[in-house]
Design brief:
By secondary structure, the chain is α+β, with helices and mostly antiparallel strands. The longest helix has 16 residues, at 11-26. Helix content is 19%, strand content 31%.
Length: 191
């Protein structure tokens, strides 16, 4: 399939176009239903949040003037985590060295953090912090999927959220809206 997105299309318009393409070309039929599933609530831990609220205006300066360091491994901190250059103006940066992960967040809401954490814990995460601002923070954790028998201990995502951000994940069960595919063709129809 070769498709072009019209200039100026919004993300919502793109999603509708993709949905229409799947329905038309692959004869996709589906329905939505609610199902009780294990989830997490992202909540403030007992000692309170350890977050710095973002300034009202983003930092001034021309991001295109930033020259990234040459390719190669990043410097590491005392615990072996990669160091994201502080002068890098990009609000979202991720670095990884083996199982050691570092993610810098700029001007992010707790709802956005919950969505990101859901990709790391393989279940839905809902923001239940009550924190309404935008925050700047960095999160460091060991990816348990990549941790080998010789890797020294380090915080997993659950421990990192609590010790570094003052947040925690509370397990629960909730009714989740899921998409059920009823039919889809393996080969699309011709153009």
């Amino acid at each position: 399939i070769s498709a072009k997105i019209p200039a100026g299309a919004t993300e919502e318009q793109f999603r509708l176009m993709l949905q229409d393409l799947l329905i038309e070309r692959f004869k996709l039929t589906f329905h939505r239903e609610k199902k009780e599933m294990p989830t997490y609530d992202l909540v403030v831990a007992k000692n309170g949040p350890k977050l710095k609220e973002s300034p009202e205006a983003p930092p001034s300066g021309d991001p295109s003037a930033y020259k990234p360091p040459p390719p190669g491994p990043l410097k590491k901190d005392k615990d072996g985590f990669p160091i994201i250059p502080p002068e890098d103006p990009r609000p979202m940066m991720f670095a990884m060295e083996g199982p050691r992960c570092v993610q810098r967040f700029g001007r992010r809401s707790m709802e956005q953090l919950a969505g990101y954490v859901a990709t790391l814990v393989d279940r839905p995460v809902e923001d239940a912090t009550g924190l309404k601002g935008k925050y700047d923070f960095t999160l460091k954790w060991m990816n348990d999927r990549l941790r080998g028998p010789d890797d020294d201990s380090g915080p997993n995502i659950f421990e990192s959220l609590q010790t570094q951000l003052g947040l925690k994940l509370e397990p629960k069960k909730a009714m989740i809206d899921i998409l059920v595919v009823d039919h889809i063709e393996k080969t699309p129809t011709e153009n």
